[in-house]
From TrEMBL:
This is phosphoserine transaminase. It is an enzyme of class 2 (transferase). It comes from Acidipropionibacterium jensenii. Pathway: Amino-acid biosynthesis; L-serine biosynthesis; L-serine from 3-phospho-D-glycerate: step 2/3. GO terms for biological process: glycine biosynthetic process, by transamination of glyoxylate; L-serine biosynthetic process; pyridoxine biosynthetic process.
Amino acid sequence: MSELKVPVDLLPSDPRFGSGPSRIRREVIQALAAPGSVMGTSHRKPPVKDVVHSIRSGLAELYRLPAGYEVALGNGGATLFWSMAACSLVAHRSANGVYGSFSRKFATTLQKAPFLADPAIFEAPAGRLALPRAAHAVGTYAWAQNETSTGVVAPVQRPEGIDESALVLIDATSAAGGVDADISATDAYYFSPQKNFASDGGLWVAVLSPAAIARSADLTSSARWVPDILNLTLAVENSRKDQTLNTPAIATLVMLEAQISWLLEHGGMAWAANRTHTSSGVLYRWAQDNPLTSPFVQDPALRSPVVVTIDLDHSIDSAQLCAIARENGILDIEPYRGLGRNQIRVGTFSSVDPEDVRALVACLDWILERMPRVGA
Ligand SMILES: *Cc1c(COP(=O)(O)O)cnc(C)c1O
């Protein structure tokens, strides 16, 4: 235990800064237990189906969906969607941008599928970005809008020179709801709800183009065996009825619906993007101005507005800094375990109040001034 007790008046009003699962607004958690809550009722009946309907129409409004695009959802999170895409969306071969753990996991999933050719990999080291480019015999292009393991944000646009029939799949798990996107440039814009949508894990949600829906109908009725849970066409058919193939986590649906409505009430994606930009800006400026810290992502254009990674001087031990923060109630600023750097990672998702980020910075300054130095 450290002796360092951060003064209470410096502490943020909500001390959760995780990059997923992320902070869930307290009033949303309380609403789950309120009288009239749909918890413990059938997902095939109107009260829960209305929640699913509101999620689908709310997302359509939030992201201004072009005509013909549909919102589908099901169980299993973005990780399940990777396997679903392998079965239901990739016909022969994909091209993948790989620049961190999450973008790599999707590439690996596709590489393991015995019925697909190995993906064309466009790779960059952690902290940088590589987008897939037009490649031979490739009908699907994939990358992550926000690489949560490194804090790199990527543009969402159709790669130049790709076939007209090619699909663009964007992993928007930690971007959707906090970073805007032009959905017309994508065919599947998919995410899990436990990041900017401040809900719990367990579900995947995907915004699908007519071309993606048609590709899935083709592949799932072909000779390829597709398990029902990985069949995107079945998921679309259920979603059209405001249902899911099998029983969903109803609390996750309720909290997702509450967050989408909350974002819309405050001004939609423009408001959310402005808020995450403000919060992350506070941290990036601090990291630049403080001699003990620096932003991990060198190129300012690639710095994520929703997951901020900050390198620490070698005289500061990140594990010790995070432990002292934790003893003072400040949670989940530890770095991504796989990255192995002496750094902190802070989720500045849309539910995080910029005032809390300013308070976090004040707390970090206070701790850094007093904590022991490595080798001292
Ligand atoms: C968190 C995350 C995932 C994995 O989401 P699960 O819900 O755990 O499957 C995938 N991609 C990105 C970019 C993520 O941030």
